[in-house]
Amino acid sequence: MRRPRRRPPPHRPSCLLRRPEANALAARPALSGKAERFLREATSDARPRLEQRVAIVVAHPDDETLGCGALLPRLGHPTLIHVTDGAPRSGDDAARAGFGSPDAYAAARRAELGAALALAGVPTGDAICLGVPDQGTVASLAATALRLVPILAASEVVLTHAVERGHPDHDATALAVGAAARLLGPDAAPAVIAMPFYRAGPAGSWIRQSFAPGAAPTVLRLSPEERDLKGRMLAAHASQAGTLAGFGAADEPYRQVAWPDLIRLAQDEALYDRHGWGVTSAEFDRQAGAGLDALGLEAAR
């Protein structure tokens, strides 16, 4: 999560694929067997332990808590991947948070992650950081996708970000997951389940943890106990308190996505054009396209 920083008025971004009209996506597509089982068990009132091999691939420490914090304690075989360490190399975020360097900020975020995961009963050693520079994931899209291939090959389900023009690292992480799944092919790839985080709303607002119009999501409605746990996990990410205060311990919506959806960038305004999070939407599109081309996936676009 990043604290906002004002930039000049945004331009209307281009897109890798044009987003279809909302009514074309209104009906829920047929779920794969892996996705159907995951979503059914994840949201069951019985709250069973999930025995599928689930990879959670997110951009920053704290994204796992926002996206699926209440679900984490029930995952029997999780693999947690953070693409970045959550500390932009410019040092500006570190300084605003009271740290002397990006390395010190990253270490603090790693300790906060450990505290949050301990509350969920997930060993910190189960979390892997790929070390891509924060706010620079799109520049490493091809390399990140290739590193994810063996992780996804060992998984039945992968949870990742929705592509929503909220944060460039979120969108690039989703694209890398989609590219890795595409490289594996339909028989070997896991079911890809998206989680919404935030996107641009009207009049400078943010829309938080709500999918853009499309197929109806499957929602984990949190019990009071789950909401309390998630709230304590969010509080463990103390350096992000200012940003996380706008979210709260919300319900957890999920939606299966397929390859075209994973590389479809909304034409809506990008929050990263408002706030200066390392790359503009126009530059993001250029770098994302180059990354997909490098993987030989240009025909899919």
Please explain how this structure is put together.
The protein has 301 residues and is α/β, with parallel strands linked by helices. It has one domain: LmbE-like (Rossmann fold), CATH 3.40.50.10320. It contains eleven helices and nine strands. The chain has helices at residues 33-42, 63-68, 92-96, 102-120, 141-153, 168-184, 224-236, 241-244, 259-262, 271-275, 281-294, and strands spanning 50-58, 75-84, 127-132, 157-161, 191-195, 198-200, 206-208, 218-220, 252-256. The strands form two sheets. Strands 3-2-1-4-5-9-8 form a seven-stranded mixed β-sheet, sandwiched between helices. Strands 6-7 form a two-stranded antiparallel ribbon. Helix 4 packs antiparallel against helix 7, helix 5 packs across helix 6 and helix 6 packs parallel to helix 11 (281-294).
- Percent range for β-strand residues: 15-25%
CATH topology, by name, is Rossmann fold
Shape: globular
Structural class: alpha/beta
Taken together, the total number of domains comes to 1
Mean pLDDT across all amino acids: 88
CATH homologous superfamily classification: LmbE-like
Which strand order does the major sheet show? 3-2-1-4-5-9-8
Termini separation? 29 Å
Spans with pLDDT under 50 lasting ≥5 residues? 2-15, 17-28
Q: Roughly how much helix do the residues carry, as a percent range?
A: 25-40%
